[in-house]
């Protein structure tokens, strides 16, 4: 073969440097380049993407890190380097706010099938199997990239927050680097061969590397995402961490005594472990270098405006009514709050049935004080916080977190800006190791953040939702308080507003907005000696409690709260009122359907000659006389003909229905009533183009309802499981099977 001339060799080298780095003027060796793009709602996906960008240097690579909404910083239409996507899913399978516009762009049907034929990608999707649309944003992006001609160079990872993201993330990241290096090497080799001295045309598709994909595996088991049409994926549902040789647990061991009764022979806890973990060599992650400097300065006055916390429209609205809906010794306390949203004062708060809204709540004052005490900063709580980037930071894309405002006090920052109840990340545990003087505590922290201690981390930190303050209380021998606070500033996510469904219609209650909630209770656990209430529900209860205790005092002024509207463009009654619809909402899940029915009743009054479809509601609670929410209003809807079928069940009452023969068992849960109406429900959904709405608990109820619907379709249409699942999936795609669920 002919050797290239000196001029040709020089040109090949220069063009290779341009391809890899984008910086052709660098005279020294240029590191190969790839791109990392992320879409993140609460910061987890962003943190992972930042970690990939930082670790790239250790592998001799350069990563360009961008958020998906930073359109001016990346261009996939011209990108020739490999691209790694890290995306989470929020709501009912929706993209994060900072990925929404990107998803809309790539979903445009005007794009040609070869739009991204030049693109090589890998994707890590974060989700939660407690929700129906698991990793939906990641799946949507991947499906669309493939439809537009992009090629995958590394199997997709589907990480499940329901059992522990790290079970997929850790092996996915471990295998990513060799795959990126192999891909870059192949691309460089192919491009060098293709380059011609006088050629300026684009790289033909044939020059793309022929990348061989292999399934990732954990514990020597090949696994794939079960409901994906792509085989090159890693899913969590098949992972068996207990059997993996790299994972140890120090959970309490049991042994049977002579009578056969199990007895606890050893005790493990948050602060102490047992063999084999306590005797294992540990793979402790590298310490992430700090990138923020924190200083506290005395100040006469600092800005303390809650409205600054939201870029969206945030309104301070008065609570006009507070009613306790549950009665007697009900297990859960259910409250209804009514907000005054007069159009003249709050024009942006016009809502429709099915919409929800965010409530901006502070952290609990006692918990903030406790954290300040643990950090030794209680005497400086009114000092101004100054947070800046370290001048010598090497963190790629480093920036002061956007949810940390300027010119606020330390107290304000911890009260309104940072989610201090968030579960401590392993990176924080790792940083705490460096500031802990007690050797036993240091060892235990190393275990909890290590690969071998993953099971203990889940058992004692993640599953009980331990907070940073509770962790610091359990490991008190730390020092360098300001360094720990700087680490918290880097790692604690934004204090997120809490969403609630509208439980009213503006046609029935002009200028009013109602919502319903249960006061959430978290039990005591290892690391938390006493229980606690849900952050927002506990705060709201305390706000209105005087009005609940003394309802006769009409002059008692209820407080104002900060809210912003979250319109729903799908979870709404059918646009065609003649179509039938079914509502399933046990407990407080009935809330949006009160708005649906109020709206329907007012529409029928306004247009009595119009044709309206049949309406069904399946409701359930524990006891008829304790937590049958909106009982009187629901029965009135039936009497007026607004609600055609009301099916109610009570899970804790006698199984026998007194109005039926003794042999007839009373339905216990909403799915049992669904089965009793199998033929009518399937007829509405499959023959009448009807709609079905589910609202409430994602972990149990929504899953049980979904499985029941599959069984009903199998029975009525005489089809197999797979075909029934496909038909139900078709209803989802047509936006006729809609969910508003929460974990």
UniProtKB/TrEMBL annotation:
UniProt EC number: 1.16.1.8
InterPro entries according to UniProt: CysJ-like_FAD-binding, FAD-bd_FR_type, Flavdoxin-like, Flavodoxin/NO_synth, Flavoprot_Pyr_Nucl_cyt_Rdtase, Flavoprotein-like_sf, FNR_nucleotide-bd, NADPH_Cyt_P450_Rdtase_alpha
Stored Gene3D superfamilies: 3.40.50.360, NADPH-cytochrome p450 Reductase, Chain A, domain 3 (1.20.990.10), Nucleotide-binding domain of ferredoxin-NADP reductase (FNR) module (3.40.50.80), Translation factors (2.40.30.10)
This protein's record includes keyword S-adenosyl-L-methionine: yes
GO cellular component, one term: cytosol
Annotated FAD-binding FR-type domain residues: 312-574
UniProt GO molecular function: [methionine synthase] reductase (NADPH) activity; flavin adenine dinucleotide binding; FMN binding
Cofactor(s) it depends on: FAD; FMN
Domain Flavodoxin-like: 34-177
Gene Ontology biological process terms from the UniProt entry: homocysteine metabolic process; methionine biosynthetic process
Superkingdom of the source species: Eukaryota
Record key words, sorted: Amino-acid biosynthesis, FAD, Flavoprotein, FMN, Methionine biosynthesis, NADP, Oxidoreductase, S-adenosyl-L-methionine
Protein name stated in the entry: Methionine synthase reductase
CDD domains noted in UniProt: methionine_synthase_red (cd06203)
Pfam families reported in the protein's UniProt record: FAD_binding_1, Flavodoxin_1, NAD_binding_1
